[in-house]
Amino acid sequence: MEALEVMKKHRTYRNFDENYQLSDGELKKILQASRQAPSWMNGQMYSIIVIKDREIREKLVSLNPGNPHMLHSSVFLVFVADLRRTQKIAEHYGVDYPISEGTDPLITAVTDAALALENAVIATEALGLGSVVVGSIRKDIVEVSKLLNLPEQVLPIAGLSIGKPTVEMRVKPRLPEMAVIHYDTYQDYDYQLIADYDDTMEKFAEARETKIWSKKFADYFSNRPNQEVDKFLKMNKFFK
After folding, report:
1. Helix, strand or coil, per DSSP, at residue 84
2. In what residue span(s) does the Nitroreductase domain sit (predicted)?
3. How far is 68 from 70, CA to CA, in rounded Å?
4. Longest CA–CA separation in the chain, Å
5. Which of 9, 40, 60, 141 has the fewest beta carbons under 10 Å from its own?
6. Confidence of residue 1 (pLDDT cuts 50, 70, 90)
7. From CA 148, how far away is CA 142, in angstroms rounded?
């Protein structure tokens, strides 16, 4: 039940006590929990970059100034989809490694990395600390990869700032259950459910939001997807 309560009370924190230092024991617990996440065939096709170095974190913020917590949190983790390890295995056995001929290996590795990330979030909150997931590290994916010395076939998925929160946050409302949960087959639903959620979020009145929920995503997806990710995937031999 304690685990269920932790997950039900999930909140994102962006303001951290700069003087708080995560202990080695706390960090180890978070990383152990992360490594115990489920993965396809127990392949564990991800890696975690633990970034304590202030200079590296300053460079990350310079690339992504909208997320200063990457520097001010106690530690910053970067979760990467890692197909380099299985490449090493293929080389060891002298077999082909045609991952660039389809998307399924990449989907598998991204899923493994995401599951490990979520375990880290839950473990962080179980320790009474806070975190924020940073997907925007992919905005400057080439520069971030060079900064972290990532080899080919390793893809940054998201970062995670962890620390002691200084600002209390409320639990954010989620979409109506009928818009998300389907039984046996996918069931279409009326747009009114989305309109109702817009109303719920307007009443929630999160200070950082400047648009209603649906308009935020209408505007976001009206633009072309981040082309840097596509270039990166080809450059690093995920695709031909």
Report:
1. helix
2. 8-163
3. 5
4. 60
5. 9
6. low
7. 10
